[in-house]
Amino acid sequence: MEIRGPLELPARREEVELQTADGLTLVGELALPETNAPVATLVTLHPLPTAGGFMDSHILRKAAGRLPALADLAVLRFNTRGTTSPRGTSDGAFDGGGAEQFDVAAAMDLVRERALPRPWLVGWSFGTELALKYGRDHDIEGVILLSPPLHRATDDEVAAWAGTDREVVVLVPELDDYLRPAEARERFASIPHAQLIAVEGGKHLWVGETQTRRVLTEIVAAVNPAALPLATHWPPVG
Fold first, then answer.
1. CA 46 → CA 49, 97, 213, 226, distances in Å?
2. What predicted TM-score, i.e. pTM, was given to this entire model?
3. What is the DSSP letter of 215?
């Protein structure tokens, strides 16, 4: 069976609730490898909810559907405040990236409570703003930024990552609607250790199986490169 589209590979999947410091309950899902212990954890931050982003935005849903089986990763997805998906609606209201700092903190609280190993923040679009603004406050190995628009994260907030030892991996689509590779290199130049990957033919929404596989491969290359190359069929051949 070819691995493509919304196919979910075997995993232990659990509906979870996150409690924020300002009293909200956020809904989410934790996906773990079916039998192995996870080697690392992806804490995913979805695109802009006012433009249709939620925990089921396709790259994040496919990461949770595939990477526990293919790369022994734990994947936490959740709806930020005021966001609705088939899993349910998180309390509160969208705050433009301000009070969402409490949402990020609530996700990291669950990571600590469950003793999930080697957490990384994986942000997509609006989610990259949250990762850049608030990720340094938490015990993470690094951030993976998919299609960062850099609309909300300030130049100072970006530059502050230069003073950390956390890894910064930036995937910039060649044909992005908001930030393309040449400008991204300028905007991220303040972080000398940032790894900027320009994806030829890529677009902001990473539509299509070719782009999906490229994004998931780059995530695994950063977090658990021993799992590469990712299998394209299930059960894996050989």
1. 8, 12, 18, 26
2. 0.98
3. H
